[in-house]
Specification:
By secondary structure, the chain is mostly helical. It has helices at 2-7, 23-31, 41-72, 78-82, 93-104; strands spanning 15-17, 36-38. 58% of the residues lie in helices and 5% in strands.
C-alpha cells in the first residue's frame, strides 16, 4: 500500500480490502494512503453470533478505535490524519524496493 500510494496519480484512488479486521487496520491503511478501507468478516461473525446487536457493537468498536487513532495522532479531520507520517520497520525497506522493481521493471531504482 505504501508503494502504491506513492505511485498513484492524483486521479487514482486506492481502496484497501482483504485482511483488515479492526479499526486499527482501517486507520493504518488510511494513514498509508488509501482513500477508503473496508472489511466484511468481522460483521459476518458478529451477525452470526449476536445478530443485529452484534453488528451494531462491531460498528461502534471500529468507530471507537479509529477515533482513538485520530486523537492519538492529534488529528481533528481525515485530511489531517492522512498527512501524518507513517512509520514502518526499516527491515521492510529492501522488500519494498524489490517489490517496486518487480512491478515497474526498474532494476536500478526504487
Amino acid at each position: 500500500l505504501l508503494l502504491a500510494s506513492t505511485e498513484a496519480s492524483d486521479r487514482q484512488r486506492l481502496l484497501a480490502s482483504g485482511g483488515l479486521r479492526s479499526g486499527l487496520d482501517i486507520a493504518k491503511t488510511v494513514a498509508m494512503g488509501a482513500a477508503a478501507a473496508g472489511f466484511a468478516l468481522p460483521f459476518i461473525r458478529a451477525v452470526h453470533a449476536e445478530g443485529q446487536e452484534g453488528v451494531q457493537k462491531t460498528i461502534q468498536q471500529v468507530r471507537t478505535v479509529f477515533t482513538a487513532c485520530m486523537a492519538l495522532t492529534g488529528s481533528n479531520s481525515l485530511e489531517q490524519f492522512r498527512q501524518n507520517k507513517v512509520w514502518y520497520e526499516s527491515v521492510f525497506q529492501q522488500d519494498i524496493k524489490e517489490f517496486s522493481r518487480s512491478i515497474h521493471g526498474n532494476p536500478g531504482t526504487a
